[in-house]
């Protein structure tokens, strides 16, 4: 079994639904041999990241940047995971009320420092909440889980 870790900031009903949609996609019945887990940032540390074969990060955009909880997550795992997790397949989704660019740039800089491998373009869910955001997230979860399962990443 490969482990897919989903770390998501979920401050609202909408963002909780998005994270659950990613998990739903990642646990689709067609995806075998993947154990997907959804955790809040505060429940995630180096132990969970070191054990992961792939990771999906979900954050809101706050004040033009990633949420404080996701930044705190990166601060806690950065050095403990730096050597061992280079090349970790990774994907990102951003829920932004109106932009998302500052968050994308900020996360990409950290991921570049960690040398994780972005295996999908960042998914930016922008503007008023749309029901389609949930299917986008489900698709993202399934894509990453299927890619890991198939050994593509
Ligand atoms: C303190 C705060 C700051 C925010 N700053 C931004 C921002 O800089 N850019 C942006 O696009 N959205 C911003 N937002 C909106 C959030 O991204 C949005 O509320 C969050 O993604 C939850 O979305 P929801 O309403 O669909 O639950 C901010 C929200 C809060 C509470």
Secondary structure elements and pairings:
Blueprint: E1 2-8, H1 13-26, E2 34-39, H2 46-50, E3 54-62, E4 65-66, H3 68-82, E5 89-96, H4 101-114, E6 117-118, E7 123-126, H5 132-150
Parallel strand pairs: 1-2, 1-3, 3-5, 5-6, 5-7
Antiparallel strand pairs: 3-4
The structure holds flavin mononucleotide.
Residues 12, 14-15, 60-64, 95-100, 129 line the site of flavin mononucleotide (FMN).
Describe this structure in words.
With 153 residues, the protein is an alpha/beta fold. It has a single domain, classed as Flavodoxin domain (Rossmann fold). It is 44% helix and 25% strand. It has helices spanning 13-26, 46-50, 68-82, 101-114, 132-150, and strands at 2-8, 34-39, 54-62, 65-66, 89-96, 117-118, 123-126. Strands 1, 2, 3, 4, 5, 6 and 7 form a seven-stranded mixed β-sheet that branches. Strand 1 (2-8), helix 1 (13-26) and strand 2 (34-39) form a beta-alpha-beta unit. Helix 1 (13-26) packs parallel to helix 5. The radius of gyration is 14 Å and the shape is globular. The two termini are 15 Å apart. The structure holds flavin mononucleotide. Flavin mononucleotide binds at residues 12, 14-15, 60-64, 95-100, 129. Flavin mononucleotide (FMN) is lined by residues 12, 14-15, 60-64, 95-100, 129.
